[in-house]
Amino acid sequence: MRYYAGLDVSLAETSVCVVDEEGKILREAKVASEPEALATWLGALGLPLTRVGLETGALAGWLCEEMTELGVPNVVCMDARHARAAMVAMTHKTDRNDARGLAQMLRTGWFRQVHVKARRTMELRTLLTSRKTLVLKIGDVENQIRGSLCLFGIKLGTAKRRTFSERVRELTADLPRVAAILDVLLQAHSAMLLSLDRLNRMVLEIAREHAVCRRLMTVPGVGAVVGLTFIAAIEDPARFAKSRSVGAILGLVPRKHQSGEVDRNGRITKTGDTEARAALFEAAHVMLHRVKKWSGLKAWATKVAQRQGNKRATVALARKMAVVMHRMWVDGTTFRFSAVEAPAAATA
């Protein structure tokens, strides 16, 4: 007899449901969302569990890793989008019913297993997301200050980030109350810039020591941030039998809708790692519009842009860059420029 355990995880408690191979519910309970508590409860069942599954979420990676180390057999992380689609017909959504649904999905095998990243990769991802958060917050503070100055008829104009505070203080010299208010934001702005410098140094140190990242940085438009973001998203290139699969995993391929006589392609799927997709799009934009040296990739993307516009060409180039970067990673090679001249239309 085979047995399956579905875990619907929340921050404080986890709903657990255990079923047999015929779908009969054997045990249900609410257990603290701690790996030790879950491992103890599952071990006390005395059943040879075929699979233990939980949805992707904030705690999923940590619970999978810790429970496996504690001896829980066959712990799998399930794609939450697939689980939601499978249980969308439920009229009553509760944690208990979600755990039942997950257990039945484990029993039937109708789920997609998600790769659980290693702790070192999660540390790298935390560094990159923290850096991005600081960049966004610095922009928010600057925009708030710009908007506040407009209320008094002061147009800040173009100001470099490093001289932003000095410029604001100069323009508000005749408005002491406004200057006192904005000085608080400027102090926070300066503190965040210092913190961003620290994170940037950490990123550069990791990139300098990471051989794969250095090879990926030979691709035009790819810097330390883009290279490390791609590495954190893929983690293990052997997971993909074909390099062209990487574009689909990162959501850079068009949707497909075919039914009867209807057969059309839509926008890109935007599934998978959002950060990696955004980083590749930015790198593709740099290659297409800022990099002066021509390559086969740039020439191909330029022709696509002439036919279908810059935005589609940038997305297509981002997908192609993902494929090329994966192949470089697998082969241990650097980017190869080909002797391609600029198309006549682009140089005219």
TrEMBL record:
Q: Name the source organism.
A: Methylorubrum populi (strain ATCC BAA-705 / NCIMB 13946 / BJ001)
Which ranges carry the Transposase IS110-like N-terminal domain?
5-149
| Signal peptide extent | none
- Per its UniProt record, what PANTHER family does this chain match? PUTATIVE TRANSPOSASE FOR IS117-RELATED, TRANSPOSASE FOR INSERTION SEQUENCE ELEMENT IS1111A
Q: Name one GO biological process term.
A: DNA transposition
NCBIfam families, sorted: transpos_IS110 (NF033542)
Protein's recorded name: Transposase IS116/IS110/IS902 family protein
Pfam families listed in its UniProt record: DEDD_Tnp_IS110 (PF01548), Transposase_20 (PF02371)
Where does the record place the Transposase IS116/IS110/IS902 C-terminal domain? 213-294
- What are the protein's GO molecular function terms? DNA binding; transposase activity
